[in-house]
Amino acid sequence: MSEISTTTQSGIATFFGRMGRYAMRGIEHLGDGTRLAFHALSLLFAKPWQGKHFVIQLYALGVGSLAIIVITGAFTGMVLALQGYYTLAKFGSESLLGAGVGMSIIRELGPVLGAFMIIGRAGSSITAEIGIMRVTEQTDALEMMAVNPMQRIILPRIIATTLAVPLLVSIFDVVGIGAGYIVGVELLGVNPGAYMAELVAKLEMIDLNGGWVKAVVFGFMIGTICTYMGYRAQPTTEGVAKATTQAVVIASVSVLIIDYILTSFFL
C-alpha cells in the first residue's frame, strides 16, 4: 500500500514538475518575444527607412488575404441571418435581425474570424519565410552587410500586420452585413427599412471602437508572434515546420484570450 502511495506521489510530483517547466518556458518566450517586438519598434524611425519592404509586406498581407476575408465574411453574415431569423421569429422580433447581425459581426465575429483567417493565410507564411531565411543563412548575410535584420525583416512585417488586419476586418464587417441583408431581406422577407433602421439605432460608437481596438491589437499580436517564431526557429527544415505550426496555434489561442479580456472592457 505504501509503495502505491509512493508511486502516486511521484507521479503527481512529475506532473506538476512538467507543468512548471512548461510555464517557465512560456514566460521565457513571452519575455523574449516582447523584447524582440520593442527592439524592432525602436527602429521605426531609424535610417534607412524600410518603406519599400513595408509596402511589399502590406500588399502581400492585404491583397493576398482579401479573397478569403470576403468569402468568410459573406458566409458568416449569411449563416447569422439565417439562424437569427428563425430564432427571432419565435418571439415575433424579425425586425431586429439587422441589429443582431451587425452587432455580432462588428463586435466579435469580424475581428476574431478575420484574425483566424489572416493567421492561417499570412501568419504561417511569415513564420515559414523568416524560418527559411534562417536555414539559408540570409539573416547572417544581412548582418555581414551591416543591415539590421530586426529593421529589415521583423519591423516591416509587424507594422504591416498591425495596419492590414483592421482594414481586412472592416471589409469582413461590410461584406458580412451586406450578405446578411441579402439573406434576411431578399430571401426571408424581412422589411428592408426595419433591417437598416434597427441596425443604425442599436449600433453604438463603443461597438465600432471595440471592434477596431480588437483588430489593431490582434494585428500587432499576430505580427509579433509569427515573426518571433520564425526568427527563433531551429535552422532546419523540421525546425521551420514545427515553428510554423506553433505560431498558428499560439496566435490563435492568444486571439481568443485577448478577445475575452478586451470584450470585458467594452461591455
From TrEMBL:
InterPro entries: ABC_MlaE_roteobac, Permease_MalE. GO terms for molecular function: phospholipid transporter activity. It comes from the Bacteria. NCBIfam families: MlaE family lipid ABC transporter permease subunit (TIGR00056). It comes from Mariprofundus ferrinatatus. It is found in: Cell inner membrane; Membrane. GO terms for cellular component: ATP-binding cassette (ABC) transporter complex. Keywords: Cell inner membrane, Cell membrane, Membrane, Transmembrane, Transmembrane helix, Transport. It is a multi-pass membrane protein. This is Phospholipid/cholesterol/gamma-HCH transport system permease protein. The chain crosses the membrane at residues 58-82, 158-183, 212-231, 243-262. The keyword Zinc does not apply.
